[in-house]
Amino acid sequence: MPPSIQSQEPPTRSRKRWRVLVCCGLAFCLVMWFGAGLFFLAPQPILVGVLHSQTGPIAVSEQAMIDAERLAFEEINAAGGLLGRPIKWIIADGASDWPTFAREADRLIYEENVTVLFGCWTSASRKSVLPVLEKSDHLLIYPMAYEGLEACPNVIYTGAAPNQQITPAVQWCQSALDARRFFLLGSDYIWPHCVNAIISDQLMGLGVEKVAEKYVPFGSTDLKSYVQEIVDTQPDVILCSVVGDSAIAFFRELRDAGISPDDIPVVAFAIAEDELRSTNHADMVGHYAAWNYFQSIDTEENRRFVSAFKTRYGADRVTSDVIAAAYNSVYLWANAVRESGNTDVQQVRNALRQQSLNAPEGIIAVDPSTQHTWRPVYIGRIKEDAQFDIVWSSNVSVRPVPYPITRSKTAWNAFVDELQRGWGGWANTGITQTEETPEND
User: Model-level pTM?
Assistant: First the structure.
């Protein structure tokens, strides 16, 4: 048999295949090169931390803050972002637990590398986060009305100081309600104790009577004994710093005891539109609340804000003081970033001290000496439609005074330290009976 003859590929076909392989390789390299270039050229997001409770008993309240902050982030991104970069927000769950707030703040700063924190609700959660901020020299923007008696360089306070909510309400009670006998009732943790100490000093200065000062165990819904004491003492007005489910139970017990707003009005410091929306607010109609913002404020800026919030989250949603403060916080920070030209924490913090804003409630501004915010003050009466009829306003933004002048800063700090040592924390978590606030130094 003749030897087998192996077929050979024509040289032309071999060269064509080689050219195809080379072209494919070049194309792949070009795609990878351009892709990598686009990755490095694409603007990297500005990372921000949002630290609120998404679980636990405070989650319902803090979700409103998350919603407000998210709305502001989305609006800024839709307008082109900051410094040509989008904002990316990372939400951490404080879980209504103070040590968890501290751990999550640490994680956001050191692992997620956020440039700022927006967060906290209660003073206990804020105070738990302070050591983390001080260690890292970072920045928290805190959007909640609180007791004052604090001035941390790592915090911008966009909620009310006591002279922007508490003391104007007391003065109004004396002048508008002709109140001379005051009953002070609060939940048993740091905020109400400090608030009532401030009120007690003010009442002494006004020469009027403090009938009683009582504290409800945190979360308790058994308030019959407190209402009975109100019936027995017949004060002219009740100043209420009771929070959460306890506040709802308190108004229900008042109604069941036959006490109407015409008999003994309540001025509440922790009841706003969101609470009215989610409860049987009929028990609260006719009573009062003091805040820096109400949804019923009739300005163009507020109408735009309310419309934007309802468009984003639903027509049944309402705006409130904490929602407005959280929303304002993002825009104050964004303006400071633009002014700084970067996201460096120290530079942004310095720029924040010079910021002002045409906010839903009116003109607000960060006070450079205290890092608290100038805000207007409003007192509203609760209506049947779960909104507020504004009965008094300051007409102008009020300068924040975190340390009332009735005591020295040293004395106020000692008062707070005494409470913290006595409780071993920032709330009375033991088996709590009614107790009095420690006497003035």
Answer: 0.86
